[in-house]
């Protein structure tokens, strides 16, 4: 089914177009879903649109190529918005939780502009071959130091929750040095892990292991905490006005509260009332 042009601002329409291009019979396990999640994760984790500078991004050109028809048919959506929306759409389509997402990101014009704004963006991503200290360093730099859904007393919950993205996809020897799908169903979001060295570190570390065990026993808890942590991830480096989600991230940090406990205005759902007017962001 060919990609369609949708009305400017119709992000639900873009979601439907993303679902169309997720079906890729000739790629990996027949789905571009896992690589869309990886694209959103990496684009947000290194704060940059410039994907070629870090070896950890090897293979993401496949995801970008799958999304080009949507971008070409709908040039009004930024790459940063499309890439992150593709990630959250893929997670939900593959059986995972719905991730809070808001538009408004703008793209850098090139590597020089990105470097001027964010500095060098290489070597900022988790290395699947390394252990717990490396994981703490990487996630700590990104600001993942408080719990996502409970009183913020344990700094390791979000680290384990976000590592759950390894439930999806497969490794490729020419990209990471590892090979093959290491879960039962690599296109189904679940509370399994691939068991890369970085995943094994979660089990071997005394402070991270309790959250691994909690999530293994309670998929609903994992889905809830993953949703909040991934929503926070895709807002890294995003500066908005006071009408949207980014305000919640800043407000949560200022108040020392988990994201789902922060309320704006009269209360209600913390992700409600985030209109698109006036927002601008750079990823």
Keywords:
2 strands, two-stranded parallel sheet, globular, mainly alpha, disordered C terminus, 283 residues, 11 helices
The order of strands across the largest sheet is 1-2
Assembly category: single chain
Our measurement of the CA-to-CA distance between the termini, rounded to an integer number of angstroms, reads 31 Å
Average of the residue pLDDT scores: 74
Low-confidence stretches: 47-52, 146-153, 263-283
Structural class: mainly alpha
Q: How many distinct beta strands?
A: 2
Q: What is the overall shape?
A: globular
| Rg (CA only) | 18 Å
The residue fraction in helices comes out at 40-55%
Largest beta-sheet details: 2 strands, parallel
Note the total helix count: 11
How much of the residues is beta strand, in percent? under 5%
**Secondary-structure element order, N to C:** HHHHEHHHHHHHE
Describe what you observe in this structure.
- There is one protein chain.
- With 283 residues, this protein is mostly helical.
- Helix 1 packs across helix 4 (79-93), helix 7 packs across helix 10 (219-233) and helix 9 packs across helix 10.
- It has helices at 11-22, 33-45, 60-73, 79-93, 111-118, 132-141, 157-163, 197-204, 209-217, 219-233, 245-255, and strands at 105-106, 281-282.
- The radius of gyration is 18 Å and the shape is globular.
- The chain is 43% helix and 1% strand.
- The relative contact order is 0.15.
- The chain is built from eleven helices and two strands; from the N terminus they run H-H-H-H-E-H-H-H-H-H-H-H-E.
């Amino acid at each position: 089914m060919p990609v369609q042009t949708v009305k400017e601002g119709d992000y639900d329409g873009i979601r439907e177009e993303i679902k169309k291009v997720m079906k890729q019979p000739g790629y990996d396990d027949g789905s571009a879903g896992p690589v869309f999640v990886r694209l959103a994760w990496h684009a947000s984790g290194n704060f940059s649109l410039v994907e070629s500078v870090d070896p950890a991004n090897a293979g993401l050109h496949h995801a970008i190529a799958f999304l080009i028809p949507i971008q070409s048919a709908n040039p009004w959506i930024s790459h940063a918005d499309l890439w992150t929306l593709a990630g959250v759409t893929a997670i939900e389509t593959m059986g995972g939780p719905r991730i809070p997402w808001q538009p408004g990101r703008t793209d850098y014009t090139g590597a020089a502009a990105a470097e001027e704004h964010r500095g060098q963006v290489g070597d900022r991503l988790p290395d699947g071959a390394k252990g717990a200290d490396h994981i703490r360093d990487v996630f700590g730099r990104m600001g993942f130091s408080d719990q996502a859904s409970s009183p913020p007393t344990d700094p390791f919950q979000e680290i384990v929750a976000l590592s759950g993205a390894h439930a999806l996809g497969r490794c490729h020897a020419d990209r990471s040095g590892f090979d093959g799908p290491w879960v039962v169903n690599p296109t189904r979001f679940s509370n399994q892990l691939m068991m890369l060295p970085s995943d094994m570190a979660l089990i071997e570390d005394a402070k991270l292991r309790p959250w691994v065990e909690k999530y293994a026993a309670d998929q609903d808890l994992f889905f809830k905490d993953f949703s909040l942590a991934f929503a926070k991830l895709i807002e890294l480096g995003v500066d908005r006005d006071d009408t949207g989600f980014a305000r919640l991230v800043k407000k949560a940090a200022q108040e020392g509260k988990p994201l789902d406990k922060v309320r704006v205005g009269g209360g209600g759902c913390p992700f409600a009332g985030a209109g698109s007017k006036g927002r601008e962001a750079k990823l």
